[in-house]
Write a structure and sequence with these properties.
Layout: H1 3-15, H2 43-67, H3 71-80, H4 82-88, H5 91-98, H6 104-131, H7 142-145, E1 149-150, E2 169-170, H8 173-182, H9 188-196, H10 205-215, E3 226-227, H11 234-243
Parallel strand pairs: 1-2, 1-3
């Protein structure tokens, strides 16, 4: 190995490989999607990733559970609903996929963006669980009466004038919209449930997953009313109907 090669390897170790040489696909076991090893981003960014992203966010995920209802409520939700365990435990792997190849300010800015999404998701499903009659022996408590639900395409801003008396939580956002981004295998069980009773395979799979959640009784009972609207997938469903 020549002196030039040694300098190149040393520079890559200290600063990480430059853009165009990272070959991120080689991080994975062939045909599996499983990591062979973690990405080396250079000393500074690798240490930042380990400390300020991995360790920090694992700690904050526990902290969020504690401040939004506590571990007992969370454990009840995990035991009752399949999607929460499959999603919560894989969050940091979702971070890994989203941050591949990032360095410097882009890495740091993305980390705070993901942190905000994670925090709000935990707040929403913990509010679901706190109001959920399924987790409270069928009792519809005070929070149940103060937690309206709405489609993910309905802006939560419409509830702002009543924020002092109610706290809205989107119906589909956590159980299947976020989950299929964090762990794409989560929704397959619900799609199978919908198709097993005769739903064709051509509608939007996210809509099928939503139907499957209800079929398997895996949707929290946390709201007194639901505000709905047309969905983004309605056009594709309508097209399929016309084609059929």
């Amino acid at each position: 190995m020549g002196k030039k090669d040694i300098k190149k390897k040393l520079r890559d170790f200290i600063h990480g490989k430059p853009h165009g040489e990272r070959r991120l696909g080689e991080l994975y076991q062939p045909k599996t999607g499983l990591y062979k090893h973690r990405e080396w981003r250079g000393i500074k960014d690798t240490m930042y990733y380990f400390n300020r992203i991995w360790l920090y966010n694992y700690g904050m995920m526990v902290y969020d559970i504690m401040r939004y209802g506590g571990p007992v409520l969370f454990a009840k939700g995990v035991w009752r609903y399949r999607w929460i365990g499959q999603t919560y435990l894989t969050v940091m792997h979702w971070y890994d996929r989203g941050f591949e190849g990032l360095r410097g300010p882009a890495l740091r800015a993305s980390a705070w963006h993901y942190r905000a999404m994670t925090n709000e998701t935990i707040r929403q499903f913990m509010r679901m669980f706190a109001a959920d009659a399924n987790l409270h022996g069928g009792e519809r408590n005070e929070l149940w009466h103060r937690t309206p639900a709405h489609d993910e395409t309905v802006a939560g801003a419409i509830f702002y004038p009543w924020r002092d008396v109610m706290d809205d939580v989107p119906l589909q956002m956590v159980p299947y919209f976020v989950t299929c981004h964090v762990n794409c295998h989560t929704v397959l069980n619900y799609i199978d449930a919908a198709q097993s009773i005769g739903l064709p395979g051509d509608p939007c799979p996210m809509c099928q997953a939503e139907a499957g959640l209800s079929i398997l009784d895996d949707m929290p009972d946390y709201f007194p009313f639901l505000v709905t609207s047309n969905e983004a997938c309605d056009g594709s469903v309508g097209t399929s109907i016309l084609q059929d």
